[in-house]
Amino acid sequence: MTENEKISNAIDEIFRHYDCIYERKDLEMLPHDVQLHIADVYYKKPFDEDDYSTYDISRELDREIFKAININTFKKLIGADELRKNGVEIVDIKTKSAIEKDFCFDENSLDDDIDYGFSESITEISFRNATGESAEFTSYEELKKSLDNPDDEFFHKPVQRTSIKDFSSAGAEKLREMTANNETYTEFLKFQGRVFKHTTSVALEFFTQRPETKFIATREQWEQSKRTVAQGSEAIRFVDSNGKNTDFYDFSQVEETNPPPQWTINKNNADKIKKQLGIPEKTPLISGVIHSTVNPTHITSCMSALGIPPKDYREFSKSYVNAIQLVIAGRLEVGGSTFNIPADLTALKMLKTDSQKLAFLTYVADTARESLMKIENAVKNVIAEERVEKNELRKMENFNTTRTEERSGRRTSDNTAGNVGEQSDRSKSRENGRSSGLGDDTESTKRQEHKVVSGVQNENGERSGVLVQVRPDMRTLQPESDGLRAVDGGRT
Known about the structure:
Strand content: 5-15%
Low-confidence stretches: 97-117, 426-473, 478-492
Mean pLDDT: 74
Largest sheet: 4 strands, mixed
Shape: extended
Radius of gyration: 30 Å
Oligomer: single chain
Order of helices and strands: HHHHHEHEEHHEHHHEHEEEHHHHHHHEEE
Number of strands: 11
Distance between the termini: 35 Å
Number of helices: 19
């Protein structure tokens, strides 16, 4: 049963079996996560007409539903959506243990009575703004004063936002610097490689503002990895084409000092990884994986999108592949390897506008990401195979130890019925041991791609854009595990 089916069925059951004093629309207007929570409350003990104890669940449902309806209305009253656009998020709302029917309000009749209702029912509201500052209010009246005060810095402090549609002026300046400077161009491409699961827009802003960045993640992603963004840390904010804000923090803003684990390639696993990828032994890893990813059709498609004439194919393709090599090299250098690949700026210099340059780097990053994901999957397969080998060796060692003990036992045995019984038991034990399965469960992550438009004004004041892939769900910080070791100074 999907989450939506679970919610729909629970609401149907609630209105079928209970004498509800709220309307169905009150539940349907609630946020998805709140609806899911209410469904969970119901399914703790679904209605059973022969079991009178199930009637008690209606009281708990009433409390949860009234609380949800009140909080949803409260958020609309204080303009939570507008606050979010300004970087202010509601962290928690605490209410009295029971919210009576008198405190359930219709969102279309927000008048003085609602102030009284919230004054009576809400005991604490906490917020966090884009700079990481927190604020708590113990009454609705106290909160209302701050919201109505234009000089209140917590709620009304201007927040700098970097739109993914229009990269910052500093980012545009950095693009022009790359065009004129081999070293800056190389540094950025390798930086993009170290954070290859992030988009070019995100990489460019961090490279411009915080070039020493080691890891990039949202606050929620850091928390999922059991790490905490330090109080007062200032995020680099991005806004997608739907107006949704996403705040990113780097590893230096996290309280914990142990970096997330990262896969690495070294002389011990390089040959195994190339074998996984079907790359000939004498072919360099970077060349082999690019060969399996890039083809002439891909290059001509990129040229067409950027307005590069076919006559420049040879020069453009050479420079394009060179850029992909540098991105991949940046990621493979995590762990100590070094790749001395001279930068070829030919393709970048063919482009006139900043938006074209960002588009070119986006094509490069997307192709390099595809190659690096192949390498990452190969690394995981090699790790899994090594685990199986270790388990098989351990199993053989245990088997040989048992055989040795048995032989020793037979030499000293007096062949009594009791000893025969013991040997039989050991034999059964061995058979049970042989039948146990080996192998680790693997977890697959459902990925979603979000598309946003990236672009800037050109020299004529015209705005142009390109499609940029955003994969926030790809960026998952993992706990320590065999074969994935933490590398100080590494970047995802």
